[in-house]
Write a structure and sequence with these properties.
GO molecular function: antiporter activity; xenobiotic transmembrane transporter activity
Organism: Lupinus albus (White lupine)
Order of helices and strands: HHHHHHHHHHHHHHHHH
Structural class: mainly alpha
Keywords: Membrane, Transmembrane, Transmembrane helix
Number of domains: 2
Distance between the termini: 75 Å
Number of strands: 0
Helix content: over 70%
InterPro entries: MATE_euk, MATE_fam
Mean pLDDT: 86
Shape: globular
Subcellular location: Membrane
Length: 491
């Protein structure tokens, strides 16, 4: 009997038992796939819900300078040239710096929100405001002496003087712009983006009225257009401040002015400088390409076409910036909550979205290549040259959108120092030298300059992909959580 009992333990599984076991495995796999599919759908909804408003905000806030230049353009060639040069100089020497410094909040506020340390969002934002307002003081002196600096750089005296006047009247708006960047990141990190859309939309409408009022009705010319920019930025700031202080949506994240914002400002400055360098290295290289185009044969044609290319690039870039802000918030939120898989899923979903958007934009760019130049010029030579440039723009727009998403994820992780080195290498070790080589050695002209930018974008993208693939995301989540488990850090 004992032998029979032992032997019964080794009776082979019956066929229907095999079927039952396989059925359980299939059911488990089906449930996992269904759960993954549901997670992907939810993540897409979150990103689309954030992406649309943030792209709109970026475009609306960028449009203030463009609208002012359009009004000045009706005053004549000299005022238009001066305002255009002034805005370009202001972007390089002021706006891009503050934009970069403010983006450090994407890391800090995003992780704090994910870690449910809601009060820290207000502290980080106040600390950032102090740093950006302080940084605006030396930047305002640079703007005040814009004409002298531009003349020293070899620019035309009359145009430089006009640019200097324009920038002096924009100085009050520089301080508002810095505060605005902080408030944008404060609300963005909480996924509370629709107030940004409303305030930016109202500001844009008011800005059109202000430009008309100052430029034409009071005959203030380019001064009035610059003054309108300053006032409009302050109006936007005022609306957001009122909203943040009155709404219950920010009750947990904004507890009024706090002395804690004065603690450990140096830590924020270090991250802000790295963020600014990371962004400025990229922005400045595009402006440098336009300056280099003035050294080519037939500089008027080359500069005109490169300027059109740059304006087109910046217009498309507003979409990429919006997507970059979305993934920065999503990654920092998930890492702050210790959710490694959530951060990875968010990044993968955004990469797919970026590829789809980039492909669509690229195809549209190629399809409109023969008519796009007509929006800027009536000269056949310019229109034909722009048409030849558009395929290169399509490729650069695709690569730029891809790297912008990866850079946004990097900001969400807090990799600004590393990205600053990557951007320096990509744009100034590879990009600009390649542009000079193609344009001046191989004599490809303006198209060669833009090919250098494409080389830089490719190197930047490859480096960022490599870093993401080599990253221990579990460790990143642990670091993010560790910050807010130790309340003395950055508080």
């Amino acid at each position: 009997m004992e032998k029979d009992e032992n032997s019964s333990l080794h009776v082979p599984m019956l066929p229907n038992q095999h079927v039952s076991h396989d059925h359980d495995l299939d059911s488990q796999r089906s449930q996992q796939l269904s759960s993954l599919r549901q997670d992907i759908i939810e993540e897409v909804k979150k990103q689309v819900w954030l992406g649309g408003p943030l792209v709109s905000v970026t475009l609306l806030q960028y449009s203030l300078q463009m609208i002012s230049i359009m009004f000045v353009g009706h005053l004549g060639k000299l005022p238009l040239s001066g305002a255009s040069l002034g805005c370009s100089f202001a972007s390089v020497s002021g706006y891009s710096v503050l934009l970069g410094m403010g983006s450090a909040l994407e890391t800090l506020c995003g992780k704090a929100y994910g870690a449910r340390q809601y009060h820290m969002l207000g502290i980080h934002t106040q600390r950032a405001m102090l740093v950006l307002l302080g940084s605006s003081i030396p930047l305002s002196f640079i703007w005040f002496y814009s004409s002298n600096l531009l003349i020293a750089m070899g620019q035309d005296h009359e145009i430089s003087n006009q640019a200097g006047i324009f920038n002096r009247w924009m100085i009050p708006g520089l301080f508002a712009y810095g505060i605005l960047q902080c408030l944008n990141r404060f609300l963005q990190s909480q996924n509370n983006v629709f107030p940004l859309v409303i305030s930016s939309g109202v500001t844009t409408l008011v800005h059109v009225v202000l430009c008309s009022f100052f430029v034409f009705e009071h005959n203030l010319g380019s001064k009035g257009a610059a003054m309108a920019i300053s006032i409009s930025y302050w109006i936007n700031v005022f609306m957001l401040v009122v909203y943040i202080n009155l709404t219950t949506a920010c009750a947990a994240t904004w507890n009024g002015i706090s002395k804690e914002a004065l603690n450990d400002i140096i830590s924020y400055i270090k991250l802000a400088i790295a963020s600014a360098v990371m962004i400025c290295f990229e922005y400045w290289s595009f402006e440098m390409v336009v300056l280099l185009s003035g050294l080519l044969p037939n500089p008027q044609l080359e500069t005109s076409v490169l300027s059109i290319s740059l304006n087109t690039c910046w217009l498309v870039y507003t979409i990429s910036v919006g997507l970059g802000c979305v993934i920065s918030s999503r990654v920092s939120n998930e890492l702050g909550a210790g959710n490694t898989q959530g951060a990875l899923l968010a990044l993968r979903v955004m990469i797919v979205i970026a590829i789809l958007v980039g492909t669509t934009i690229g195809l549209v760019t190629i399809l409109v290549r023969n008519v796009w130049g007509k929006l800027y010029s009536n000269e056949d030579e310019v229109i034909h040259y722009v048409a030849k440039m558009m395929p290169l723009l399509a490729l650069s727009d695709f690569l730029d959108g891809f790297q912008c998403v990866l850079s946004g994820a990097a900001r969400g992780c807090g990799w600004q120092n590393l990205c600053a080195f990557i951007n320096f290498g990509a744009y100034y070790v590879v990009g600009i030298p390649s542009a000079i080589l193609f344009a001046f050695v191989f004599h490809i002209g303006g198209m060669g300059l833009w090919m250098g930018i494409i080389c830089a974008l490719a190197v930047q993208g490859i480096a960022l992909v490599t870093i993401n693939l080599c990253t221990d995301w579990n460790n990143e989540a642990k670091k993010a959580m560790h910050i807010y488990q130790n309340s003395n850090i950055l508080t």
